[in-house]
Amino acid sequence: MPSDLAKKKAAKKKEAAKARQRPRRAPEENGDAGTEPQEVRAPEANGTPLPEVDALTKELEDFELKKAAARAVTGVLASHPNSTDVHIINLSLTFHGQELLSDTKLELNSGRRYGLIGLNGIGKSMLLSAIGKREVPIPEHIDIYHLTREMPPSDKTPLQCVMEVDTERSMLEREAERLAHEDAECEKLMEFYERLEELDSDKGK
C-alpha cells in the first residue's frame, strides 16, 4: 500500500507535467487609473503568524490554566486498566469550591458516541476539560483529543488540520521527504515509510 507521501509525490509530478503542457497567456494590461495598484490581502493566520492572534491565543491559554487550577476532580477507575471502556465511580467535580458533580458514575464505552446536554454553567465544559487533561483516572493506552476552541481561519480541510495535530506523523513525513531528496535508497527512509504505514493501520482499527 503506497504511503501518503508517495501519493503526494505522484500528484505533484502530474501537476508539474500538466503545467508544462498548458499554453502561456500574455499578461493582460488594464487602463491607467493614475495610481499604482495595491494588493489587498486578508491576514493569514495559517501562514505568517499574526501578533494579535498570538496574543489572544496566549490570553486564552492563561485563562484555561487559571480555570484548571480552580478545578478539583476526584474519581475511581472501576473498569479493568487494560479495557477500552472507561467506567469511573465516585466522580466529583468542584470549581472554585462550588460542587458541579457529586459521587457520580461516568461510563464511556468503546465505539459509542456521547453528547453532553444541560443548562449553561452546570459543568459540561469543566467535565470535558477534566477528561481532556486526564484529571480523572483514564488508562494511558486510551488516546484523548480535546478541541478546546476553534482554530484560526484556514484554507485547509478539517482532515488536514486533524492530521497536523499528529506530531509523530508530521515529523516522520518531513524527515522522509528530506531523505527522499537526498537518497531514495536510504535504509532510514524505509524505516520511516514502515512506521508511517503502521500509523495508518493503527488509525484504521
Automatic annotation (TrEMBL):
Residues 1-50 are annotated as: Disordered. Keywords: Repeat. Pfam families: ABC_tran (PF00005). GO terms for molecular function: ATP binding; ATP hydrolysis activity. It comes from the Eukaryota. Residues 101-194 form the ABC transporter domain. This is ABC transporter domain-containing protein. It comes from Gallus gallus.
